[in-house]
Amino acid sequence: HSDFLSKTKMKLFIKNSKLNVIFPLNLSQLKTLPKPTVPPLKRTCELYLSSLETFLQPEELNHTKKLVEEFLIPGGVGETLQKGLERRACNTENWLECLKRKPLVVLLNFGILCTRKDIRDKQGQIRFHLCMFCSDTLPVEYMKGKPLCMKQYEQVFSSCRIPGAKRDSLLFLAKSSNPPKHITVVHNGQFFLLDIYNSDGTLLTVDQLCVQLDRICNSSLQTSMDPVGILTTQRRDVWNKSYISLMQDETNKESLSAIESSILTLCLDGPMPPVSDERMHRKAAFFQMFHGGGSQWYSGNRWFDKGCLVFRLLAQSGSLIPILFHPKYHVFYFVYRNKETPHMIQTPSDPLPMPQKLHFNITPEIKQDIEEAKQHLDTVVQNVDVEITVFNHFGKNAIKARKMSPDAFVQMAIQLAVAEHLMGLMCQASEENIPMPDVFTDTSFCKTLDFFHVTTSQLSSNTGCLTCNTLDQPGTYDVGYSIMDSHIDCRVSSLEASNTCKEKDPARLSRALEDALLDMMTLLEETPRVDP
Q1: 376 catalytic, yes or no?
Q2: Cα 402 to the chain's mean position, in Å?
Q3: Confidence grade of residue 336 (pLDDT, cut at 50, 70, 90)
Q4: 34-97+384-527 matches 110-134+184-382 in fold
Q5: Could you give a GO molecular-function term held by this entry (predicted)?
């Protein structure tokens, strides 16, 4: 198994308490795929003006047209930025690489909330989680007969985002000469290095992993007062400064290197506060997955720069909620069909080395950074709200019976091709230190492209998993849904500008969505079907 991370796809399944790994290739079409091209500048500006005609007053439209004309003058700033984008397109995989320095938590990272299983003892919960990573291998994906890029799957494991002063970098060690053979485990804000290979090169069995995780839990019973992981919730430039300070100490440097080079981060959480009903239970699970619940709960039990698998253990209700968090999307397919009662864990006959605790020397400066990160995160957490509902009236079967697309029935897709080009030009101006052109500070531009009230996404799942997408900026809603055969799982989340201004109400929007679905189906039922 020396090439555990050298291939792209992974299939894990349980057989005789062992983890078996299969790696089919899926990058065969990668070199044949064209790079994204930069659209013609004039055409994009024409489309932009056309989109404004529907809602701007004549005088506003005329003003914007003048700004666009100035932007398009030969030899002017528009042409300069266009040439810069075209150069970027030649030298990068994607010319639309805006350097967002926002915090990863809430604003940039994605997550998936999976359905819970009723397993009451901690060892049973650990075993279930370890046996949960069961999925079929994924072939090359196609759209309209054309192969899609699968490279994102290659960087799921053994990758880490490193904070930079102006631009972050991606550390990727899966194809190095000495690929990592360990994972990072976090419990009560304390970090551990856990080797998942035996000395003979074989993977640890599920029983062995259970023993090791139990050792970690028993050796970290107290919550760390200085959770270093919470620093990864800060703005990227702020986190970069703290990162540089941490790296001045050799012990810290070794611990950071162990975390960054690990295959993935496994976060072992405890329960959230007990709640009275299923609705609040779902909200608590969402918050725990999305941001950890804040500095008083599990936000410090993360390393948001890496892919994290978050497991909730010892829930007071006796239930268990497996949670997947990862800065990349569509990473795993979870299978929960094994409902057998977990058997007792057998102590491995061969002695296992103790997991290695990772230590950090916290200076007064770093301690202050941690406190500021806590305050910053708690402000963001207070401004996030969510409503998770199950629409039980009908699902995809009823919609398909009326010869309609289920996804089209739930939402209308918004095309952002024009917005992407203009956003790229804005980023290019910032990259080249060119004063922002007036066309991008015009009120018309702000109305159309700088503020999105609602974003939507669908996750196709047979297991009831729900996505949690980024809330790109304050004052926005995000709606995620999964259309099942006879029902629709829906999640509505929002981010307020401040905790003193509560204008968004996910519960109200969720009710309005339910009413709209019912009204649409009623209309279909009451309207006679006309044969073509």
Answers
A1: no
A2: 34
A3: very low
A4: yes
A5: carnitine O-acetyltransferase activity
pLDDT at residue 121, rounded to an integer: 53
Using an 8 Å Cβ cutoff, are 377 and 491 in contact? no
Q: Are 186 and 303 in contact (CB under 8 A)?
A: yes
Start-to-end Cα distance in the chain: 59
Report domain 34-97+384-527's class.
alpha beta
Axis-axis angle for helices 122-131, 206-218 (nearest 10)? 130
- The residue count of the chain comes to 532
pLDDT at 482: 82
d(CA 287, CA 305) in angstroms, rounded, equals 18
Domain residue ranges of the chain, discontinuous segments joined by +? 34-97+384-527, 110-134+184-382
Min mean pLDDT across 257-271, 304-318, 426-440, 476-490 is at 304-318
Helix pair angle (58-71, 41-52), 10° resolution:
170
Structure confidence at residue 373 (pLDDT):
92
User: Does domain 110-134+184-382 correspond to CATH entry 3.30.1450.10?
Assistant: no
The average pLDDT across 469-490 equals: 77
Pick the catalytic residue from 182, 291, 326, 376.
326
433-442 average pLDDT score: 80
